[in-house]
Amino acid sequence: MTLLPDPEFTQHTDSFVVVEAPRTTFAANPKGMLKICQEFYRHYEDEFDVLVLVSHTPDGFLPQWGVGVRGGMLVVRHSDSGTGTSKRDFGQAFGSASRLKGVVHLSSLEQIVLGPLLHEFMHLWFSDLTVIPSEFVGHWGFSSVGGQLGGFQLEELETLGRGKYIAGNFGPQRAVNSVPYSDLEMYLAGWLPPTDVPEIWVAEDGQWSLKRLTKEELEDCKFESGPFMGELDEDCIIEKDDRGYKIFVANKISTWNVKEIIRNLGPRKPNFENSQKNFRAAFILVTGKGNPFSESELATAEHYINQFTIEGPLPKSFRDEIAHALWIEDIYNFWEAARGEATLKADELQSFRFRSE
């Protein structure tokens, strides 16, 4: 058996650190993530709620995760009650004695500002427990939650008859268009009182309505090239209305209110008044040997991190920049997504570095 070399930190800045690792993806090798975190804590104090690992990938995709997946969250420590995440504490295995709550892995720098980081952050409070009925663990499925973890806006729901529905452009496992955190997500995180959570419409057995395609037509719906070559293109096989909205089917419809959710999960502790609302993250840029980040990429990383963590709305100039470069118009930083109720800091990283370094 050949032992892979340990990760090596090659650059330390106030916004991020750069690590050279034998592997830059961890879907099939979570031990690689563990080693990077352990090495990070050899250099830095235990003063971070979340570590954000960003891979240096040529096309921004990690095929091991599947089509459409741009990030992942591993919750390592959770002590709150009444949320959608079970209690646990194995942070010490990652090198954190007491503070680290989760480790995020993003497929590219762009995911810092395009929505996946907001999505993964919310998994701290909704990951493995049932909050409302859903076929998608840790996601809202075909419901009117309409948040970063999926679902739609209730005002966009339309009944087509015979158990068929449309609800605008949405995904059961993610926000197709970036949105602020929903009321239910805000409540689970401890940033909104339960009295502000509206009733939720749920299609408990919801699923996409699939076209009736021949074998030849199914073959034509497969990606012909790229990282997902040979896999089915979801957009090609799902039935849509004349506006291009995907149609879903369901027979079991229910309505859930926050009292029922609290009855199942228990009251949130700490509550809205006493919950944590100020967080700190450390960004770790992960690259392989012989594939360093360019100076331009490092400047982009610093720019994206600074904009994502500012305590206030994104400036119009940055929104225009992202719209021009990445063709995305609706973006939110952490403060905006949390409606000003929570903050995330990632600056002055070197002030947490051990002085003996």
Structural overview:
The longest helix has 15 residues, at 295-309. This protein has ten helices and 15 strands. The protein folds into two domains: 1-125 and 275-357, no CATH class; 131-189 and 192-209 and 246-274, no CATH class. With 357 residues, it is α/β, with parallel strands linked by helices. The strands form four sheets. Strands 1, 2, 3, 4, 7, 14 and 15 form a seven-stranded mixed sheet that branches. It has a four-stranded antiparallel sheet with strand order 8-9-12-11, with no helix packed on it.
User: Could you describe the largest sheet, including whether it forms a barrel?
Assistant: 7 strands, mixed
**Structural class, judged by helices and strands?**
alpha/beta
The low-pLDDT segments are none
Round the Cα radius of gyration to an integer and report it. 21 Å
Number of domains: 2
Order of helices and strands: EEHEEEEEHHEEHEEHHEEHEHHHE
DSSP, total strands: 15
Strand proportion: 15-25%
Contiguous helical run count: 10
Shape: globular
What is the chains' assembly state?
single chain
CA-CA gap between termini: 33 Å
Helical content stands at 10-25%
Average per-residue pLDDT, rounded, comes to 91
List keywords for this structure.
17% strand; 15 strands; single chain; 22% helix; 4-stranded antiparallel sheet
Short description:
The chain is α/β, with parallel strands linked by helices and 357 residues long.
Which helices and strands, and how do they pair?
Elements: E1 8-12, E2 17-20, H1 30-43, E3 50-55, E4 71-75, E5 77-78, E6 88-89, E7 102-106, H2 111-114, H3 116-122, E8 158-161, E9 164-166, H4 183-189, E10 200-203, E11 207-208, H5 215-220, H6 234-237, E12 248-249, E13 253-256, H7 258-265, E14 278-287, H8 295-309, H9 316-326, H10 334-337, E15 343-345
Parallel strand pairs: 2-14, 3-7, 3-14, 14-15
Antiparallel strand pairs: 1-2, 4-7, 5-6, 8-9, 9-12, 10-13, 11-12
